[in-house]
Design brief:
Bound molecules: cobalamin
Number of helices: 3
Helix content: 25-40%
Radius of gyration: 13 Å
Number of strands: 5
Length: 112
């Protein structure tokens, strides 16, 4: 079970047997700006690719995101960060993912 407002969504290409790309999304700690990540989740699910989105919610620490990413076996992690701390948050997240064995997990984000 993930964070407080987690929910899953998925969309798979009709007639395709391809494994969906699993993506965990979240908003950085001390950050309540979730409007953009919610729009981003929707955009991901509306692509023509088989994508599975696991939304962990907002106000997530790098530790929580990294741990969930490993547990959920995702291919990528998308993080929104609006509190100005992204320059430290993203490298810390990448470092923790690496320490937990997730060196191949792609991290991408949108920030202010
Ligand atoms: C809406 C908003 C709020 C809403 C948030 C509602 C919500 N549920 O999300 C509310 C009113 C709650 C809010 C509160 C605050 N806010 Co505010 N807010 C904004 C505002 C006006 C718009 C942000 C937004 O959602 N834009 C719409 C999205 C779709 O567009 P975007 O942000 O450009 O995102 C694009 C890319 O970044 C990218 N993207 C975004 N996320 C992601 C994620 C991934 C994975 C990827 C790949 C891409 C991606 O794609 C988007 C589309 O192109 C901005 C100012 C601005 N005009 O940007 C301030 C802003 C973010 N807020 C700010 C501040 C300071 C605050 C408060 C601290 C104010 C206060 N003193 O209380 C609080 C913080 C609350 C908290 N706990 O975090 C500052 C942050 C300054 C900073 N970083 O140093 C900003 C920049 C305003 C400013 N210039 O001062 N805010």
């Amino acid at each position: 079970m993930l964070g407080h407002s987690s929910h899953h969504g998925s969309r798979e290409m009709e007639g395709s047997h391809k494994q969906p790309i699993r993506i965990l999304t979240a908003v950085a700690a001390f950050d309540g700006n979730d409007a953009s990540i919610l729009a981003f989740n929707r955009a991901l699910l509306e692509t023509d690719y088989p994508v599975e989105v696991i939304y962990q919610g907002f106000n997530m620490t790098a530790e929580q995101i990294a741990t969930s990413a490993i547990q959920e076996g995702v291919h990528a992690v998308g993080v929104g960060s609006y509190n100005g701390g992204h320059l430290e948050f993203y490298p810390h997240l990448v470092k923790r993912l690496g320490e937990l064995g997730g060196t191949r997990i792609v991290v991408f984000g949108g920030d202010v």
